[in-house]
Amino acid sequence: MDTPMDTLTPSHFDVVVIGAGPAGMAAAVAVSHSGASVALIDDNPSAGGQIWRGKTGKDHRLAAGTWFERLNNSVVKVIRGARLFHIEGHLDGGALAAETSQGILSVSYGKVILATGARERFLPFPGWTLPNVFGAGGLQALMKTGLPVAGKRIVIAGTGPLLFAVASYARKCGAKVVAICEQTSPKKMARFAAATTLVPGKISEAFRLLWDLRAVPHWKNCWPVAAIGKDRIERVRLAHNGRSREIECDYLACGFHLVPNLELATFAGCDIENGFVRVDEFQRTSAENVYCAGEPTGIGGLEMALVEGQIAGYSAARNETAARKLLGQRARYARFARELDAAFGLRSELKSLADPGTLLCRCEDVPFGFVRQFDSWRAAKLHTRCGMGPCQGRVCGSAAEFLFGWKVDSVRPPVFPVPCASLAAISSGSASTPSGSKGGAR
Amino acid sequence: MSESVTVRVNGKPVVVPVGATAAVAILISGAVSRTSVTGEPRTPFCGMGTCFECRSEINGTPYLRSCQILCEPGMEIQTNGYANGYIDAQPF
């Protein structure tokens, strides 16, 4: 199990962008256009983030095609499949370390732009750990990376516009989408529909999705109550307008909107305000030389991420004139972001879906009833091991935030679990560690 | 699928489309990706490298998030789940 980790030749860039989703791609392109050197680092096998997963410059939706082409035509060092686990600030910039299939990558930078995106919020309900229960975006990611779903009966539940996107994609792949279950009310949905006029292209996108899904039951005031099955899910029990109903399905995809990935920002010392990274008008965080763009500064969707990414990129490359031109656009999209928030806020009934025995922490198998006895995330961790498994609370932490109103903020290095060998590569506290480091077991 | 790749999940050949991740190969094979600390079977869940439910041994390296790794011809994927008959040791 002891694998010696090679240390790759350290490199330096004026700006390093972390996360190659839309915000990160836009940021890297803006930096490059401003004449500074830039690297774009992501842990996925390819750029595009969750939303543009598997897309390339040649095909698909207009925005994706445009930005892939811009990225390909810019001088950007794109580093894929790099799992970043360490970041440290220096007086004149900083350094980071990432695991790659070739060894440990050490990079130093003048400025860093965090474009770490968001993940789904998952909520515990009886049966949610059964095989073939997925996240909503989770199912989409799996379908985009080759999961065959033709003929499968799929129920998609939770909240947010993502449910429609997943349903539409599943149908294109030949699945039978049995129902879309949206926890919000018809009234809030109608208000959100009106808000789509704030962002160009959103209305046509919405109409396209509604047309694609015209044959699919779309229930509002509806949420999952239990996933039922022996070795895997066989059916789901739903609450719908105060009534209980059960439907058979092969897959259940559940996502309760998005939560920002704040681990790196927290680790880098950025102030977090109301659950998001606080930035100024140029996307600067409170930490020296650290910028942030996209979902970590507020859940705003694709267009917001693209404009924030560009502002961050231009600012980091000291091209304030170009950044300033985009401020008006961002303000308009920020209104859309507020509407998104208002429409898909979670109803309080979702706090009581779990039984005392329902697992809250999937890594350590800690039941909801055990965690509930404590009065803070920290106390719960210390007494129950909740949030102390490999995902380090990325799943149960954001659930606990909603369920108990806890502040979930205990981020510790490394950012992701890594073998000791990887830690040894950075143990001198410098990114330019010489090669040949060896470490112990994981 | 126009093109496909053959990998092995717990020794059993599995044909997946080009571009498929190891997590998808596990799902297609019908194996579970791991057995939880109290013995529950689990399959990949978040699909985006967050939840660690899909962690598996790939070409001899343990505890890799299989949803972040593309299948390559001849790849050996070993899950720690029921199909393999042993319980996932606590890795960390």
Give the CA-CA distance, first to last residue of chain A. Answer: 8 Å
Provide the spatial order of strands within the biggest beta sheet of chain B. Answer: 2-1-7-5-6
Biggest sheet descriptor of chain B? 5 strands, mixed
Largest interface: A-B, 42 and 37 residues
Number of strands of chain A: 21
Walkthrough of the structure:
The complex is a heterodimer of chains A (442) and B (92). With 442 residues, chain A is of the alpha/beta class. Chain A is built from 14 helices and 21 strands. In chain A, strands 1, 2, 3, 4, 5, 6 and 19 form a seven-stranded mixed sheet that branches. In chain A, strands 8-15-9-10-11 form a five-stranded parallel sheet. Chain A has a three-stranded antiparallel sheet with strand order 12-13-14, with no helix packed on it. In chain A, strand 17 and strand 18 form a beta hairpin. In chain A, helix 1 (22-33) runs parallel beside helix 8 (301-316) and helix 8 (301-316) packs antiparallel against helix 10 (327-343). Chain B is mostly beta strands and 92 residues long. In chain B, 9% of the residues lie in helices and 30% in strands. In chain B, the strands form two sheets. Chain B has a five-stranded mixed sheet with strand order 2-1-7-5-6, covered by helices on one side. In chain B, strands 3-4 form a two-stranded antiparallel ribbon. Chain B starts with a strand and ends in a 14-residue tail after the last strand. The A-B interface holds A 1, 3, 43-45, 50, 54, 81, 83, 119-120, 122, 129, 131-135, 137-142, 145-148, 231-232, 359, 362-365, 389-391, 394-395, 417, 442 and B 16-17, 19-21, 23-24, 27-28, 32, 36-38, 40-53, 55, 61-63, 67-70, 91-92.
